[in-house]
Design goal:
The structure holds 2 protein chains of 2 kinds. Chain A is an alpha/beta fold. Chain A has helices at residues 13-21, 49-59, 61-70, 80-83, 183-198; strands spanning 2-5, 26-29, 40-43, 75-78, 103-107, 116-124, 135-141, 143-147, 153-158, 162-169, 172-175. In chain B, helix 1 (32-42) runs parallel beside helix 2 and helix 2 packs parallel to helix 3. The chains are: A alpha/beta, B alpha/beta.
């Protein structure tokens, strides 16, 4: 079972629907005990960093994420779910992320339309089997993650700045884009993630 | 990279897609879920569903259409029409909408924009605005263009942006349904004023006009309805034409190119 962590913010159901569409045994999970026995985890997120961080903490699911990563079980963060893996964000000074990856989250520079709300090309660094080739995915975000360690970057995209559009380390991976809203390329990424949870 | 979005729009009346001239003389254009699926497969970048039904039964039908479309079309889906409260927006988002568009209700009560942004995040909130040209500028109109508001369009979109809207969807009521092309001056003025993503809507009758929405209007989302519904152009034709005209687009995965 793949646990899609539902901590009560915004529309977290699309990731669940997309996983079901590729035949993955996904289940929406709102409490830590419901996640027991999961072979993989999806951490979605839309909205403001602080609101998501607080809701994730309050739900108890933040601990599920920390344990999953400590035990090297596959976890996929999406959008703000990716940003939450870092220590903090310029969007919400003072709010703390999970700190599972080193780095912070910054505002996209002025000069382009903000938020970025479009398809963009993600060019993989070759470190992740989830991203075998450059693909176009759908992005909606005004902030981007800046990992401290170059080796945590799984893909780069460009939007007025070259930024990490996918990050990860070990079994942990995350995308700034929305695979669940990126047509076939996104569904294929989710299918690869689901297969990595079976292994 | 920059990639302009081609956005087919489904105007929904009691569960059917319709299209008319300035919201009048509606023509039936088919089953919304089948159209949504086809556009998704053919390379639409997003979809917009606007519920133009006035009745409560119609609204329930829309929720059902959104849920069925969201279960099989995995591209972003904006839904509007009758969104007047956080609760009505929540119903649409739960059904599977990614963004909700607010229009008349936000004009009547601008705090609605702030409430939606606080509850769901700005990325969910599309400020839809119907505009009509005055002598020197543009006025916001509502109720399908039938009601004047006296609001200056530029002032209204600025207020919408500061209240937390994440995107603007601006329809020229002078052009809607006329096939005379987008009101390019309208979009160019807004694009200069506001940094939000901007979707142009109203008046597209051919592919040169679609391209002009970006090339001259500086809109990054190009919405059109009847040119796609009635089979005049396929999405593939539109993409080829726009690319040749110099509009930046995403590349589609190999097998979905027609």
């Amino acid at each position: 079972m793949i646990a899609v962590l539902d901590y009560g913010i915004g529309n977290l159901a699309s990731a669940h629907k997309a996983l079901l569409a590729v035949g993955a045994p996904a289940r929406l999970v709102a409490r830590p005990e419901q996640a027991e026995g999961a072979s993989g985890y999806v951490l979605p997120g839309v909205g403001a960093f602080a609101a998501c961080a607080a809701a994730l903490e309050a739900s108890g699911l933040s601990e599920v994420c920390r344990t999953a990563v400590a035990e090297q079980r596959p976890l996929l963060g999406i959008c703000v779910g990716m940003q939450l893996l870092f220590e903090g964000s310029e969007e919400s000074p003072g709010a703390r992320g999970l700190g599972l990856l080193a780095g912070s989250v910054r505002r996209l520079p002025a000069g382009r339309r903000r938020p970025q709300m479009q398809w963009n090309l993600a060019v993989p660094t070759g470190r992740s089997a989830l991203l075998p080739s450059p693909e176009w995915f759908y992005f909606v975000h005004g902030y981007y993650a800046a990992p401290e360690r170059e080796e945590d970057v799984l893909a780069y995209s460009e939007y007025g700045v070259s930024f990490a559009s996918a990050v990860g380390r070990g079994a942990l991976s995350a995308t700034q884009f929305h695979p669940e809203k990126s047509g076939r390329a996104g569904l294929e990424l989710l299918a690869r993630f689901a297969r990595s949870c079976e292994a | 990279m920059e990639a302009v979005r081609i956005i087919p729009c489904l105007d929904l009346d009691r569960g059917r897609v319709v299209k008319g001239v300035r919201y009048k003389e509606l023509r039936d254009a088919g089953d919304p879920v089948a159209l949504a699926r086809r556009y998704g497969e053919e390379g639409a970048d997003e979809l917009v569903i606007l519920d133009i039904t006035a009745s409560a039964e119609g609204r329930a039908t829309t929720l059902d259409v959104v849920a069925r479309a969201a279960a099989e079309v995995f591209i972003p889906l904006t839904v509007g029409g009758g969104v007047s409260s956080v609760e009505s927006a929540r119903r649409l988002l739960r059904a599977g909408a990614d963004k909700v568009a607010v229009n008349s209700a936000a004009v009547a009560r601008p705090a609605l924009i702030s409430e939606l942004a606080a509850e769901f995040g700005s990325q969910c909130v599309v400020l839809a605005v119907d505009a009509r040209r005055r002598k020197e500028d543009y006025e916001v109109v509502t109720h399908g263009g039938r009601r004047r508001t006296g609001l200056d369009l530029m002032a209204w979109v600025s207020e919408g942006a500061s209240r937390g809207a994440g995107e603007l969807l601006v329809t020229s009521m002078d052009r809607d349904g006329t096939e005379a092309g987008y009101d390019l001056e309208l979009y160019a003025s807004i694009a200069q004023l506001v940094e939000l993503p901007l979707v142009a809507s109203g008046g597209v009758g051919n592919l040169d006009q679609l391209a002009a929405g970006y090339l001259e209007g500086r809109a990054d989302g190009l919405l059109a309805a009847s040119i796609f519904h009635f089979g005049r152009y396929s999405l593939a034709e539109a993409r080829r034409h726009l690319a040749a005209a110099g509009v930046p687009l995403r590349a589609l995965p190999a097998a979905s190119q027609a």
